Amino acid sequence: MTNTPKGTLYGIGLGPGDPELMTVKARRVLAASRTIAYFRKRGRVGHARAIVEGLLAAGAAEIALEYPVTTEAPVDSPSYVDAIRAFYATSAEGLATRLDAGHDIALLCEGDPFFYGSFLHMYDRLKGAFRVEVVPGITGMSGCWTAACAPITYGDDVLTILPGTLSESALAEKLAATDAAVIMKVGRNLDKVRAALATAGRLDEAIYVERGTMAGERVLPLATLDHAGAPYFSIILLPGGRGRRIAP
Amino acid sequence: MTNTPKGTLYGIGLGPGDPELMTVKARRVLAASRTIAYFRKRGRVGHARAIVEGLLAAGAAEIALEYPVTTEAPVDSPSYVDAIRAFYATSAEGLATRLDAGHDIALLCEGDPFFYGSFLHMYDRLKGAFRVEVVPGITGMSGCWTAACAPITYGDDVLTILPGTLSESALAEKLAATDAAVIMKVGRNLDKVRAALATAGRLDEAIYVERGTMAGERVLPLATLDHAGAPYFSIILLPGGRGRRIAP
Fold it and tell me: How far apart (Å, rounded) are the C-alpha atoms in residues B139 and B115?
């Protein structure tokens, strides 16, 4: 009997969206991968898959892991949590079957694999049984502050990264206590985030970035944004500079 | 009379240290640059310059901007602040002379140009007069959490980035109020940072990373590190996971 060595799971950071902002290492691993996998909404090409178009090995097998919910359900509802937990479990089992058979898999990750995101659900379920190698990527927020020409931290600045899902009072308290901030997951939380910034007295400093480094990029002062909702790929920046020790 | 167009200043993010973790765009811009510039301590090759060894155009001109202080002086002393401010002013004037003459300059930046770092001192002084283009890079902290196999944020985690230069009480207060944290600029602040983590009740979660992604990389629980000082390229991570909505 032969013992097939198990495959390796690669978590490949793709960066903020512009394919030229992938690392040399990510490009190398991707081009050598015989099997790639990625998350996407049902019925879509998938954002991660779109970034690597033209960069894959000819004939590479593709595993599309399709979220069971195509519109944002209330994320605290038990039915949502149950459905998504079952989806992650099934996805991990599918990947495990191929890894057990000796296939390496490159799992595409928008941004950086260890900074939020769905990859972590596979990582936590598979790291005990398989070798996992992570290739870091440029975060979406870094792509956004670069697109906005907005240095985020100077000198001794404190930077706080906040999900827009927090309560308005928690957001306001943390925004008032930091030098610089990035607010992720703005989307349907836009009005609440705006109110929290106003309460913290920092609305006028806030920059709104939509689709940073991608086609359709928009950068504008948050205060001038109309009250229509923000799409998923949007972020709010509160640039630092109060911690600047050496002013010009 | 002809009017020479002014040159462009490129801020090139080099990432955390491993040259393969540079972006494809950074490599392209660097390989095409006729003039590069970088900061370094006097008498050293310079860390940024070492990363790009073998990646520059043949015959590229090099401008080494050498810090006037080779050992860490008390950074709040007036003499330090005066010396470093004069150094940044002179450095910017030198770059401006070449940009005025129509030369593009690629200024090397460890990590990401808009996330802390000396590049910002040039950016603030030159952006009004010259075109500046920034290529984002993977931050040092991202290289460190990848090296440590430590996902830094899940789900709705709050992440706080803290300079180790803050007071012990400020550090302890912010460490107690966040899900995840990264402490930068550990170096001579190691003992203070350790005390603050203990006060916040989080010393046992802390991971110490020295020279992440570089030769001589060390990763260990902070609690097991001896009390000798930490070098400049060290960082402390407090991984998240409390904000995990979908547990396995």
Answer: 8
pLDDT in tens, B156-172: 999 999 999 999 999 99
Nearest C-alpha neighbor of B175 from the set B185, B187, B163:
B163
Between CA B77 and CA B88, with CA B83 as vertex, the angle to 5 degrees is 125
The domain A8-138 having CATH identifier 3.40.50.2020: the answer here is no
Please indicate whether, in this complex, the C-beta atoms of A155 and B16 are within 8 angstroms of each other: no
Q: CB-based contact (8 Å) between B134 and chain A?
A: yes
Q: Enumerate the domain spans of chain A.
A: 8-138, 141-238
β-pairing verdict for A105-109 and A8-13: parallel
Calculate the alpha carbon distances from B146 to A11, A71, A103, A131, B23 in Å: 10, 32, 23, 14, 17
Residues in chain A: 248
Q: Which residue of B has its CA nearest to A127?
A: B149
- The whole-angstrom separation of Cα A127 and Cα A129 is 6
What is the CATH topology of the domain spanning B141-238? 3.30.950
Angle CA(A85)–CA(A87)–CA(A91) in degrees, nearest 5?
Answer: 120
Tell me whether B150 touches chain A (CB under 8 Å). yes
CA distance A166 to A163: 6
How many CB atoms sit inside 10 A of residue B32's CB? 12
Summarised one tens digit per residue, pLDDT across range A217-245 is 999 999 999 877 778 779 999 999 976 76
CA atoms within 13 A on the CB side of A170: 14
Q: Among A5, A170, A224, A171, which residue's Cα sits nearest to residue A99?
A: A5
Q: pLDDT by residue (tens digit) across A183-222?
A: 999 988 999 999 999 999 999 999 999 988 888 899 999 9
> How many whole angstroms separate alpha carbon A56 and alpha carbon A35?
10
ipTM: 0.94
Interface of A with B in 82-121 (CB under 8 A): 84-85, 88-89, 112-116, 120-121
For residue A49, pLDDT beyond 90: yes
**String of DSSP letters for B75-127:** TTSHHHHHHHHHHHHHHHHHHHHHHHTT--EEEEESB-TTBSSTHHHHHHHHT
Residues in chain B: 248
**Angle, vertex CA B70, rays to CA B69 and CA B72, nearest 5:** 80
CB contact at 8 A, A36 and A108: yes
Q: Is A178 in CB contact (< 8 Å) with chain B?
A: yes
Overall average pLDDT of the B44-69 stretch: 94
- Whole-number pLDDT of residue A71: 58
